[in-house]
Amino acid sequence: MQLGMIGLGRMGAAMVQRLLRSGHECVVFDVHPEAVQGLALHGATGATTLPEFVARLKAPRAIWLMVPAAAVDASIEALKPLLERGDIVIDGGNSHYHDDLRRARELAAPGIHYVDVGTSGGVFGLERGYCLMIGGETGVVRHLEPIFAALAPGHTAAARTPGRQDAVGQAERGYLHCGPSGAGHFVKMVHNGIEYGLMAAYAEGFNILRHANVGATEHAVDAETAPLRDPGLYRYDFDLAGIAELWRRGSVISSWLLDLTAQALAESPDLAKFAGRVSDSGEGRWTIQAAVDEGVPAPVLSAALYGRFSSRGNAAAADKIASAMRFEFGGHTEKPAAKEEA
């Protein structure tokens, strides 16, 4: 099957390579010509302009956008004059599902189909495959199924869930038509919200292990320092890399995220190249907004999102206000920042 790919960054380029390996034909375009040239060496058909890109695709065209969410609307507007009734635009990035609903309505007027695909797999997807969460019209999604099947990990990526008696379906192969427009990105939105929570849980747990030797350090005796009641209880120097490796084997908290954590700690036990400023690209916020609209509690996911805000220094003003209040009501003098141990 033929597919056009716009956006040849870390994921887009790898997805094209995976499709080429499965025998699909790919036409590619990117604002960076060197990215196009690199994939041409792998067998893709490159294009230097959007008109050339569209012209190289057979009708009905299937065009996959793998660009930042903020660039999707501009990409669609640039494509619209070049497309024809029956063509398909696929957004595989991390768009807000609200935008999917609007785009589907706008593209339906000239007869262009829109499919939203939440794509998970990151830089490892080329070899591992991509988990695809799909929203759109049933017939259009069915037409694109060979593409989804080639990108997905396949049913051998995980052992079959006990109790499943029916034939191997989409979900077991690593892709799923989740519902109408917006459904794919809604599922991916919640997926990423959960990801925030899991990452925060691992990070907090390893941080507790990291400071389990607090009893072996000297503590100030003053009105500003909570006393450590029994320092003898906290004299452990844990090997975090070793514990991460241990938990990968047989533990109920084993996961791919833990695998990646173990790899990072093995490469750099002190994680010296990281400052600890954790970004968020929107999905965690949208997940919490959906929870509020639905009236369902999501305290873990909310705390994880707020933790990311704090990691970037966004709590500094609040911290200063709290410190100022302590000084005003009790004369508490602020202590200098503690040095992080090597």
Structure description:
- It is a single chain.
- The protein contains 15 helices and eight strands.
- The chain has 342 residues and is an alpha/beta fold.
- The protein is elongated, with a radius of gyration of 25 Å.
- The termini are far apart.
- The relative contact order is 0.08.
- What is the percent of helical residues? 40-55%
How big is the Rg?
25 Å
Distance between the termini: 54 Å
Name the helix and strand elements from N-terminus to C-terminus, one letter apiece.
EHEHEHEHEHEHEHHHEHHHHHH
Number of distinct beta strands: 8
Uncertain residue segments: none
Mean pLDDT: 95
Q: Compute the number of helices.
A: 15
- Widest beta sheet: strand line-up: 3-2-1-4-5-6-7-8
Counting helices, strands and paired strands, the structural category is alpha/beta
Shape: elongated
Strand content bin? 5-15%
The description of the largest β-sheet is: 8 strands, mixed
